[in-house]
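Sharing in case it's useful to others searching the archive later.

Someone asked me privately for the predicted structure of MULE transposase domain-containing protein, so I'm posting the question and my answer publicly. Question first, with the sequence:
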Amino acid sequence: MRQNFERKVKRSNKTTLHLVCLMDNCTWKLRAVRRDEGTYFQVRSFVNEHTCPLEEIHRCHRQASAIIIGEVVAPRFQLQDGRLMRPKNIIADMKTMYGIQILYSKAHQALQYVLSLTYGTYKETFKLLPSFGYVLEQQNLGTITDLQYDEDVRFLYFFMSLGASLIGFRRCMRPVIAVYGTHLKGRFGGIMFVATAQDENEWVYPIAFGYGDSENNLSWEWFLDCMKGALGHIDDLVFISDRHASIEAGISKVFPNATHTICC
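And my answer, the predicted structure tokens:
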């Protein structure tokens, strides 16, 4: 990579590996065969000199895979805790360090690989949700969390309302709550459910958050039921939402005495 030479596989099977330069007229090659006594391969011939001109090398570099790039940039990412690392930074680093021009999609894949090396995989982080909810409740008095699984014991819903937000709403806010769902565009998709109020300075005041698969009757009823458990009984409570039918059905079932209005 550092010298901008690329290779291709001429022959590869269970007993033989034959690599040659990407340029057909180049003499660089490597040939290895499997040893009879084990699974090791032994290099039988290796010509480590390129006779092809660098001007003919393709700058995208087929050996610069997302994993290789990720291993190259991982030390710098971990050193600065990822605060400044973006795909465009990886593109610039590979251009400066190796003279390789990579696509944004490959830089994004490399960054995801670095994240998995540093923080673990997504599957591993999902397993930490019960511990996260427990610690959140222990370290923030009055905090309410709820974690639900489906019949296959896979993540379904997660609810979170911080104790400080609940205390502030009960003491200082008008009993008017806006609820809405926003689509998540990450790898797993889903919906983030949000409940907010408005303080005296007309700033948005967060009350509760929830995460689920989609906006439907079950998910909205679950979110509103969790919020009712967190808020308790509040007189003259008013909800503001869009015209989503699942929100209307959930509010009428969970908060039958509340007033439900529509935003416009």
